[in-house]
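Lecture 7 notes: from sequence to structure.
We start with the chain below.
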Amino acid sequence: MKPLTLSTMYAQQERFEDGAAFARYAAAAGYDGIEISHSTPEARLRAILDCGALPVTSIHQPAPWVRLADGRANTKCNLASPDEPERRAAVAQALASVAWAARLGVKRSVVHLGAVGDGIEMFPEELEMRRLFDSGRGFEPRFAELRDAAIAKRKVLAGPFIAAARTSLQELVRASGPAGITIGIENRYHFHEIPHPAEYDMLLNGFSTEEAGYWHDVGHAEVLHRLGFIDRYAWLDALSPRCVGAHLHDVRGLGDHRAPGDGDVDWGYLTRGLAHLPAYTLEINQHQPDGRVATAPAFLESVGLR
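Predicted structure tokens for the same chain:
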């Protein structure tokens, strides 16, 4: 069977304040490794390492989590910013993750490559769409109007941000290469974020899949599909051959990061598109019950993803 990694996303609970407790929990639940998520502070990372219960198999940049001098979390830095000081700050945080991966001998690093616009959580149009969807009003004309406005806005603004993202990716690949680390560019949860499926060709042009590739996040693709922005199949239809890793989780409504089997995702197309991967990462949020975390491996086996 293929190995399964559990992300420290699930460790954002008081009982796992000591990372060693989380490492022992993941091992007892049947997982084979741990991904260090971008929500993980250094003390928890070090405790996981010192415990030795499971190996760290991937680092999700920017990790470890730190608060910057300006008060922001390092997760708020934008690798796609045309503002050079902002981009440089984001690259510095990502390079710190590369250094950790190299020190640990980790060969996979997941990257959020940034967004169109600095300092925004999402376009206001998308926020209103999500509220309409959650209240059962996604069929209303206003919903489609908001979607069209968001698409038009991103199209006008995207160029300089995508170019900056490419520059940042080049720097990360250069830094990762000597340690044999593959950069996985993850598809994102919000429409303004980078990349969309058609943007991967330009971003990955000239890189081998050993240097940089696509990292498929099941829930992110599903949520953007349900909002009507990007067809769920578009990602793997175009990028399966360049896929170097995957975050597996389930979705209900617009709520993702549920344990596989605790939602209504179509796992058939995922099995076809991800079957070539040697391992998978489960990115389950801290609100899911232990029972779901423990039964997720068996569910994945039942759909052909082990």
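Points to note: The longest strand covers residues 212-217. The first helix runs from residue 19 to 28.
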